[in-house]
Predict the structure.
Amino acid sequence: MVTPNTELTYNTKIEGDIVVTRVDAVINWLRSNSVWPMPMGLACCAIELMASASSRFDIARFGSEVFRFSPRQADCMIVAGTVTYKMAPHVRRIYDQMAEPKWVIAMGACASSGGMYRSYATLQGVDKIIPVDVYISGCPPRPEALLDALIKLQDKVTRNGGTTKQLLSA
Amino acid sequence: MSATATAGPASESELLAVLQGAFPAVAVRPTGDHPAFKLPVAEVPAALKLLRSQSGFDFLTDITAVDWDVEASPRFSVVWHLYSTTRLGYVRIVADCLSDTEPTAPSVVALWAGANWHERETFDLMGIRFTDHPDLRRILMWDGYPFHPLRKDFPLAGIETPLPDLEVGEITGATVKPAPMMGGPFVASTGEMNLTEAEPRAKDESWHERSEKPATL
């Protein structure tokens, strides 16, 4: 049987001790521990991206196991692979469809700088069309590198100042 | 299978006899591997059909083209590779395009449906128009791209053009830019006995991300 709680005061014996913090810090902490990735798998880096979600590397340890293939439900676009000029506008449009706040990880040499594709068909770095928060070197990077980038991104999210202000003004 | 088909890949002389009966203009082409023949471009579909029915070449493996040089005439040749799944041999048919500026070749989609994408690719990258192709659109580059990148007069780095999506180009200010070539293209030095020296390396490192491409290049 459920008895309604009639107590109006804070009962430390049940609820534990009080932690005083700032709203900004709480929101940042919440955000940084559930970054839902939008996998923009364009080439072989996407294989390593998939591997980081597997049990051996387990991206769930960092709260990012919920890969969403809809930009509406994602926080962080992971551009994994070669961005061709033909694909570039679509990447930008998918990025535009993501809800704020949103972040971008450029995974691997191609997404960061065009990589070995110095050619007429390849965009020389995805930062030409969307703002990138973290770059990962490697061709392709190992899953550990992606996890490292994710931790870097979490740091960045946690250090974000004025979160509440941004939320209220949005 | 017709009487001309015997075990083993068809020889050059056998195929020449088959082709010469119907196409007197056929010529043997110097080759390093498979039998190769040169034909007037208009006769190619009929010749391929003959090879398919008479010599068992039932599989079209490839259609491509060669740009000999900007100044060369004939400038473009189209190349067809056929394979026989019964006699396990290839044959190569080459035809020069009549025009050096608006090269065309007849489509063989009616013979092999698989020719469709081969011809679209050859059109996209080499600019060969295949007459009677059911759907001759670009296949790799985007619709509206103004160049044919595998032609000799097209630089590997590319030519500045707007992005395929003008709206995104406007938002981002990005355009299709010549790729910085420092670090590429990687070209091997052929004939070099020292393998370290023969390793593919960049020949022109004069322009890169921080130093724009000279206008004269």
Notes: Helices of chain B lie at 12-22, 44-54, 115-126, 166-172, 195-198. Chain B touches chain A at residues 140-142, 149, 154-159, 163-165, 167-169, 171-172, 174, 176-181, 183-185, 209 (CB under 8 Å). The longest helix of chain B spans residues 115-126. The two ends of chain B are 56 Å apart (CA to CA).
